Amino acid sequence: MKGLRSGEVAVRAGIGLEALRFYERRGLVPVPPRAGNGYREFPVETVARIRFIQRAQQLGFSLEEIGELLGLRVEADVDCEGVRVRAEAKLAEVEEKIRDLERIRSTLGELVQTCLDQGSSGDCPILAALEPAQK
Amino acid sequence: MKGLRSGEVAVRAGIGLEALRFYERRGLVPVPPRAGNGYREFPVETVARIRFIQRAQQLGFSLEEIGELLGLRVEADVDCEGVRVRAEAKLAEVEEKIRDLERIRSTLGELVQTCLDQGSSGDCPILAALEPAQK
DNA sequence: CTTGACTCCGTACTATAGTGCGGGGTTTAG
DNA sequence: CTAAACCCCGCACTATAGTACGGAGTCAAG
What we know:
The structure is a homodimer of 135-residue chains. Helices cover 63% and strands 0% of the residues of chain A. The first copy, chain A, has helices at residues 6-13, 17-25, 45-58, 63-71, 80-118, 125-130. In chain A, helix 1 packs across helix 3 (45-58). The first copy, chain A, binds a DNA duplex (30 and 30 nucleotides) through helix 2.
């Protein structure tokens, strides 16, 4: 078999044609050889490659980071430690983001509660809280 | 007093000149009158307005949403309920984002742990987990 | 009166992850 | 043989929140 055409790859991986081209330009998907007519002939592994990208994205890695991750998987010898270190860094990032959002959640929750408590008397406590000491 | 000049406003609010122009274009900061020389003369409240924007941003509101929030504060009568409803919606969004990140955190945590457990024997469990059933 | 600081404006660029478009060539089914 | 369906490419555009640039006008000090 000669390989998959772009549309085939896109359908199997569940992405758009344009996204496939985009990944190719970004170097996330190896540039495939061309058939006589200029059509790209993707090796079947390309689909797996794209699924890898999708899963890594779901874990919060950016395309650039995914590129690095893929780069650590060079030739036969995989730099497992490098991968782990990156996963740990991403984990720390995610944890920090969770802390940020928790702070936001509690502030927002308090604001809403205050608003509910006071009923429709006086002025909006939410806007008041956002306002600096009004002149 | 005639009002503040752009640089003055930017310094007091702790933003850049360009950001101020940007907020003005977006309608987040009311278009100020001009002095004879064409310079903008900002009312002092502009600084408070920008601080409002900054705080709302810290709570996760986008500039567009902040625009809506500001719009609810029309004339004398503030639509407190409208504000609360939006705060509640934002709270729900934040909570969902937290849940997403928690899922990510646990997956990432497990991957890292597996990697640490298995030492440097065999292949990288993290990459393996991202890889679909390898051909 | 010149220099430096400040202001104006429109335009373009940054990062992220794609999407959409138009014009062309190719392949396949009827 | 023709028409639909597929493929190619480059370029432009989406959203978000600004930042940067270049040229020009203005203002205050020396």
